[in-house]
Design goal:
Layout (H helix, E strand, L loop, with lengths): L7 H41 L10 H20 L22 H15 L2 H4 L13 H18 L10 H4 L2 H19 L1 H7 L6 H11 L1 H21 L23
Helix pairs in contact: 1-2, 1-3, 2-5, 2-7, 5-7, 5-9, 5-10, 7-8
């Protein structure tokens, strides 16, 4: 970035743009790494424990989720507007990496949280259906999980249920587009033939959504803990006032005074 003058307002604007770029880059990295952990744990766990016959998602379904969720949502996060109050945050140390140790642990836990739900997804075919693997249900739940995780990845501390999330036009457009493409993959005949999907009824969509929403609950709890920890670091609890000692007591009045 090259500044064309030494005006103080230009310097402030440049710092704001730099912080916005860094914040969007951090969102993108968090989302991509979390999604990759989800893929790795899902396929590795299915192969080791013979879940869904070792094939949680068909190859074309995997490509479809990667295109409609990971790629499109990455664009939404990378080009979203800067977070509110970005200039009020303290500067980060130059040596601090984008992926800290605590963040890597959190992203690594996101993968098992999704991969461990494939057994539940295989039994959504209704009461009369045979107990068999339904990769279409697995694809829908996995895609919704990635979609909800992208919403939670927008900010590390602020809740996803804030106005900042829904006022971001670019992110709302990409999220809506991703969801529409997911619905079309189970409705249109060409996608049903190519990706081996079926039309889901309302009950099946609700079950898939409820399972995928678990990441929202876990992420919101984590954000609440981070906000509380940050607040305590900025405003530490004041020590309780000590009881007055003998030297602080007022002098006794002489008798007869």
């Amino acid at each position: 970035m090259i500044l064309t003058d030494d005006n103080f307002s230009t310097i402030v604007k440049a710092i704001e743009l730099g912080r916005g770029l860094y914040d969007n880059l951090a969102r993108y990295v968090r989302f991509q790494i979390g999604g990759l952990f989800g893929y790795i744990i899902t396929f590795l766990g299915a192969a080791i424990f013979n879940i869904a016959q070792g094939i949680p998602l068909l190859p074309l379904q995997t490509l479809w989720v990667s295109f409609t969720m990971l790629s499109i949502q990455s664009v939404g996060l990378g080009y979203s507007k800067p977070a509110a109050g970005l200039m009020e945050r303290p500067p980060l140390p130059p040596s601090r990496p984008i992926l800290t140790r605590q963040l890597i642990v959190w992203l690594a836990l996101v993968g098992p949280a999704d991969g461990g739900r494939h057994p539940q997804r295989d039994q959504l075919g209704g009461a009369g259906a045979r107990a068999r693997h339904r990769p279409d249900h697995g694809m829908v739940t996995f895609a919704l999980f990635v979609l909800f995780f992208s919403i939670e990845s927008k900010d590390q501390r602020d809740s996803a249920f804030s106005l900042d999330t829904f006022s971001d036009k670019m992110f709302v457009i990409t999220t809506s587009g991703s969801f529409v493409l997911l619905v079309l993959s189970t409705v249109l005949g060409i996608f049903q033939t190519v990706m081996k999907t079926v039309r889901l009824d309302v009950r099946q969509w609700l079950i898939c959504t409820a399972v995928a929403l678990s990441i929202v609950a876990v992420a919101e709890i984590r954000k609440a803990v981070l906000r509380q920890t940050a607040a305590e670091a900025i405003h530490p609890a004041s020590a309780p006032a000590s009881a007055p000692g003998p030297e602080s007591l007022p002098p006794e009045r002489p008798a007869g005074a």
